[in-house]
From TrEMBL:
This is Uncharacterized protein.
Length: 84
């Protein structure tokens, strides 16, 4: 890994952990990533294996971050596909 790649990973990590409000930190991370990738939107999901659900935490656009906090029940087939 090059020094520039290490710096970018560090900067992304700092953005993601910059606030307890995930929508704010996700927005800042999107703005950083947009300098390197053609992004307009990012989402954060967490897989809850015990409940077989996806928790849709937040999304961010170039204008703002939005807290979503929804649970999505997955069929067994979709759960297996994501888990495996």
């Amino acid at each position: 890994m090059t020094q520039d790649e290490s710096r970018l990973i560090r900067d992304i990590t700092q953005c993601l952990y910059s606030s307890l409000e995930i929508e704010k930190s996700l927005h800042e991370t999107l703005l950083l990533l947009k300098e390197y990738l053609p992004l307009d939107l990012v989402h954060v999901f967490v897989l809850d294996t015990s409940a077989q659900t996806l928790r849709y935490l937040a999304e961010a656009t170039v204008k703002r971050g939005t807290l979503i906090d929804e649970r999505i029940q997955l069929s067994w087939d979709h759960f297996k596909e994501i888990r495996d």
